[in-house]
Structure formats: structure tokens, C-alpha cells
Amino acid sequence: MNEKTTGELENLRDLIDGVDQQLLHLFRKRLDLVAQVGAVKHAAGVPIYAPQREAAMLAKRRQEAVNMNISPQLIEDVLRRLMRESYLNEKDVGFKQVKTDLGDIVIVGGQGQLGQLFTQMLTLSGYQVKIVDKDDWQIAPSLFKNAGMVLVTIPINVTCEVIRTQLNQLPQTCILADLTSIKEKPLLAMLEAHKGPVVGLHPMFGPDVGSLAKQVVVVCHGRDSHRYEWLLEQIKIWGARIVEAKAQKHDNAMQLVQAMRHFSTFVYGLNLCKEQADLDNLLQFSSPIYRLELAMVGRLFAQDPNLYADIIFAQEGSLNAISDYIDNYQSALSLLKAGDRQAFIEQFSQVSEWFGDFAPQFQSESRAMLQSVNDMKHD
Question: Per DSSP, what are the bridge partners of residue 219?
Fold first, then answer.
């Protein structure tokens, strides 16, 4: 480049830097205003996530962007990222306490990651939280004595045993709840061990979410639901969405949503390991969608193997779901071995028709995710 071109570029880059500084100040101002909104909402007990308000605001900003000849997706991406940051900051203000006369909340397994998350959320809401872990059973009776709720979040393989042997002498008015990812057996164990209010909860997220805004908590009702309505309201205030389900229906879905998916991911990672695949080389030649898939595989193996062993081995029905998956895999493989391209196309079309309108919807949703993945790539 000649000296004139270099000078013009430097001048323009300085101007861009100035605009970036203005954007930073505007971002800071917006975050401060959102914090004030959060304080008002928390004082009134209004959920931090208002889907209708968010949708209306985004639609308005998108139209304004079009009027200014700006990509509407650009402004939506920026605003969604800002809102996510706002949700993370809002919890620092605290939350309104729905049930002010509850007594203590005792979390069994409170030292675990999910237990720590719920300890944080309940404490931010003004509740007195106490923890019982595996070495604390000698002091547990004294903690349970004044408990308004006992929340169980321990490994699946010991959940029912602990409920039956350690949680069968709780106060009659105490709520007994669990956070296990399977529901039918733990719910039955709680109903047998405790004569008071019982509810099964399944948070459909990991402990690293940061905020519960837009997250889902599945609720399987047990007994005396009017006694724990406040808990569901409290969870909504945190920003989560409540989905009610029968325990058996929930567990049947989990065989596909969790067990089969995690098992297939495990096998894929196992195959990469045994093939001694060069991950750096794979990333070098990966498309955004493969990078995202590989990231999800890697995410699994960055976590506790005991947790995923529990999820996969906990339900007898998981074996059937996984076996069906393997049978379908073998059937599809036979098409490849036979070179039957037309049969592959016919089955592909059959599955596409079964997905219906979900297929283009998922294509649209994944496009935004893939763009984000591509933005994060670096040399």
C-alpha cells in the first residue's frame, strides 16, 4: 500500500474506534437501565424474563433496523446478547421471597454443582439454606427438625435408597422434592417415605447456566400441590418456564432426549479416541456445523463420567431405546454396503416428511448458531 492509502485507512480506523467507544458507553448505559428495571421487578416479584415484552421489543427494533438499511438479524443478535448479559446481572440484585414463613430449606447433596446453583438461587431469594452431604447424616435430624422443605440432589443410583432410609422422618408439613433427571421411581420413593407434600422437579439445564432465564424446569406432581405452589412461583420469578408432566411420560421422553443421545455421543467420542483422530486437523478442515457437533461431543467428555453413567444406566427402558437406535443404524449401514442409493433417498424423504414444518424451523434456528460458531473461529 502507498502512503496515501495507509493514511486513509488509519484515519477511517480511528473513526471506527471512536464509534466503538460510543457503543461501549451506550452498552454500559443500557445495562445500568436494565439493572434499575430488575430492581423494580424483583421488589414486585415479577419474573425477570417477560417473553411477550421481549418479542415485541425485538420486532420493533428489527423494523427500525430495516428502515435504516441495517440487517434486522444484526440488531437482534446484538440485543439478544445484551439481554443475556442483563439476565446474568439481574440475579445479583436478588429476588423477591414468595414464601416468607417457610422455615429452613435443607438441600441433600448441596455440595454438588446443581445443589450449589439452587443454594445460590434460594439464598438470593432470602431463604435460609442448610446443606446435608454424604458425611453429614449424624447431624441431619437436627437440620430436618425445622425444615420447611428438603430438596434432594444426589446421584441417581442412590437417590431412592437415601429417600427411603434417611428421609422418612421429616415433619408432616415439610415439602419433599428432588431434582433427579428421572422421575417415576424417585417420586414413588418420596410418596412412600413421606406423608406430607411431595413434588418431583427436573431442571432441564446444567449447573453452569449462570441464569435461569428462559430455562425449563419439569414438574411432576406428587401430593398436596397447593402446599408447594409458592415454589413453582419462585422458580418462575427466577425466569424459568414450568412444564408439567406425568412422571412416566417424562421418563419415556428422557430415554430419547438424554440416554440415547448421550450414549450415541459417547460412542462417537469413543470411536474418535480409538481411531486416534487428530482433532487439530479435524478442526482445520471442519465446517461450522461439524465444529459445533464436535464441540458438543467434547462438552460431554469435559464433565463427570459418573453423572452420565447414572443417566444412561438409570432406566431399564434406555436399553430398549439404544438397542432400537443401533438396529436402525445397522439397517442404514446395510443400504450403504449394498450401494442402494435410491433406498437411502427414499428413507431420507420419509424422515423429512415426518419432521414436517420442524425441519425448516430447525434449519433456520441452526443457521444463527452456526454463524456464531463461525464468528468464534480463530487461526
Answer: 201, 244
